[in-house]
Amino acid sequence: MSGVVRISAQLAWRNLWRNHRRTVIMLGAISIGAWAMIFLTALSQGMVTEMIRDGLSVLPGHVQVHQADFRDDPNITNYIPIPDSEIEARLASGDFTEWATRINVPAVITSERETRSVTLLGIDPEREKGFTFVELDTIDGRFLDDVADTGIVIGRRLAERLETEVGKRVVIMSQDVGNEVADRGFRIVGVYRASLTSYEDNYALIGKRTAQELLGVGDHVTEAVVMGDDYRDVSAERAEVESLFAGEDDVVINDWKELDRYLATTLSAMDGFVLIWVVIIFLALSFGLVNTLIMAVFERVREIGVMLALGMKPAAILWQIVIESMLLLALGLVIGNVLAWVSVLPIRDGIDISIVSDGLEMWGMSNRLVPDLRLRDVALANGVVIVLGFLASILPAWRASHYDPVEAITKVE
Amino acid sequence: MFLVLRLAWRNLWRQPKRTLLTTGAMVFSNVLLIFMISLQFGMYGLMIENGLKVFTGDLQVQAPGYKDDAKMRLTVPNVAGIAADVRAVDGLDAAARASAFALASSEDRTYGVAITGVEPDHEPEVSSLPGLVKEGRYLDAPDAPEIVIGRLLARNLKVGLGDELTLLGSGVDGSFAAAVVTVVGIFETGVPDIDRGMTAMPLEYFQDMFYLGDAGHMVVVTTPTLADVPAAMTAVATLLPAGEDLVVLDWDTLEPGLKQSIQADLSSAIFMYFILVVLVAFSVLNTQTMSVLERTREFGIVMSLGLKPGRLARLVLLESALMGIIGVVAGALVGGLVTGYFSVYGLTYPGLEEMAAQFNLPGVMRPRVTLVSLFSGPLVVMLFSVIASLYPAMRLYRLAPVDAMRAT
Questions:
Q1: Which end of chain A offers a freer environment for a tag, N or C, measured as fewer CB atoms within 10 Å?
Q2: Which residues of B, range 276-305, sit inside 8 Å of A by Cβ?
Q3: pTM above the 0.95 mark?
Q4: CB contact at 8 A, B38 and B373
């Protein structure tokens, strides 16, 4: 059997180059198809990765713990009914990359000139440094020092809108735990930049202890969050958090896929899109592939008749043609893969697409596109081409192997 | 000419399988192109319409600088008067607005909100928001202490119809502004940011509360179609009171994200379409190169009989064009039918609703079949097919009749 395969393969290879023009054109088509499959997929995956990274940075925490009513009614009265020190102790006992507890409430910020509504975050600067959307190296002034810091850090855009700057004072108004208006003046100690300007508009950061005092909530927080190693799969972290908070009635645990349906659907829609794109390209290719095979068989009818008459098994003819097709595909794929890799390489640090940044922001994307070449997608593209290519070549090959030798030999062109 | 056409047509069917497969590739990509382009047109149309209809309008009159930085003191004087002047122009609808941020407190909740002062009589002509009131009614009196809020805000504030809200903010001069208003209506747009953060009050009451006098922040204008916007801009500009520093801005300037997100989507789509077209072109290149090679002897004979290579080249190009035409016709037919079906019955898939909501779109997509969406893709495919057969056609010029006749 192995001898048959070897001879078939040898014949297939030689047949491929009998009409080198046709083979080269077909190779060109397959290479471009494979290149397009992989290159575009890498760009799209990069876009989604970036989008999710940005999206998660404003919703920091892959798994989050809230009081049961908080998500519907984000009010300080719906704080987690477990003391913060106790929550911190529990999270510290877990095996998490990073975790934090914080206060997250709506508030109004007023400068001498303007009033805006913001989301006020009371954070522990030590714990949040790792995963805040604040780009720490481009901050004007300084970041918060500790939980009891009396300063406030706001976004660059918000500072512009409020016509204020580092060193000036603003007033924060929110609602305290007794439903009274709580207000307090803060000195702006830092103005941050973020990858999406809407974040700069919306988030003001103060120390966690300061926030607790302002809102009169004692040793309580509104959310506890945990970061996982890979945002695509946070089930292990989720299970661990659930076990840490097992038995607590008034607490809900969500992962980011539940907290942001838009991001979660985008992620899953992307996988579907990759498959559809690969299949469409393959279908466009398959017409050319089948065409090439049919013509190759058609030219060789007499020759195939002779081989059959001399006693070659129909199966060997079939294999010979299928192998010919597979060799063509494999060669095209190799070239396509190399092309894709070569074209991703120079832009691996990202390309600037700020020309449409406002539009991308609607999607929640920043203006840098870093291609994300995933082994899984490359394997998918190559796999689809090989499997479907095999199926597409079966029919012409099967028909060639079932010629009647006499008719085939006597066929005139 | 007719003879050449018949010759080309017959040549195509000497190898029916090959021709069918090549035109099949064309029809496949044409149908796909028609469907995708129609779908995008439908989506972009909705994005623009929905994006502008909810709030922005087609153009606005504002004080310079207000767009980039909505500061309270950048006002439009006599805002209702200007809106009335614009309304007098044929075909234009206009309404005056003012806006501010304030702290809204109910009995047990406090949230920061954006308040828009509107003309209750004219706001429904420029915005779809009044039509989305699901509970209670929209504002009706120009100076009543009333407010309309979104569903999510109502839930967050724990208020219903008839409940009172206390508003705290700062007036145009920086002074303290406060009011107590009654919730008369609750709207629901389905866009969380709007349902959570937007409220509307009667303009005159709003002006009193924030010490604006007769000033506001914008006149919102809508035109019959987007194509009328440039003409409307000129018309509105002439109506503005002399000596006042005001600007007229179109929707593209007001919502740069809208056009750019369309551009971004379009450019990635064009890349995909281009790849498809190139693959089809390769198919044609392959077919035509083979068919020219097969006919080497035949071409040698007719050339030795005196036929110029140019005419043969045109024959080859004509063959490709014929395949292209079959592709255009069959593609437009099948593509038109498929797309037409979905434009009537709509298209949806799991997860679409969540994604669409981000852009304020419904969860069902309807492709929009137009002449452009029906023929632009297929004609490009045809063009590239003819370009692809230039290579085999050009080879004919290098053909020496005697050698060609002897070719095997």
A1: N
A2: 276, 278-280, 282-283, 285-287, 289-290, 293
A3: no
A4: yes
